[in-house]
Amino acid sequence: MEAFLEWEQATQQRAETKGIEQGQRSLILRLLARRVGEVPEAARSQIDALPLIQLESLGEALLDFSNLADLEAWLAEQK
Description:
By secondary structure, the chain is mostly helical. It is built from 4 helices and no strands. It has helices at 2-36, 41-48, 52-61, 68-77. Helix 1 runs parallel beside helix 3 (52-61).
């Protein structure tokens, strides 16, 4: 029984973490759209693949972006 409760708690924690991460991705994509215009699908795919730490860095970096080229340059640096 205790093993099940531990598994359930771990599963719930992973789900919460994933939900938070998805929310951050959604917010960053909305902010990017306001900052640089429509974000192309290729860039969206790259953003979706970013680990959380890079996603947080993107959230800070986007404040300095003035156009789509800035986003594309930032994404190219992450490879």
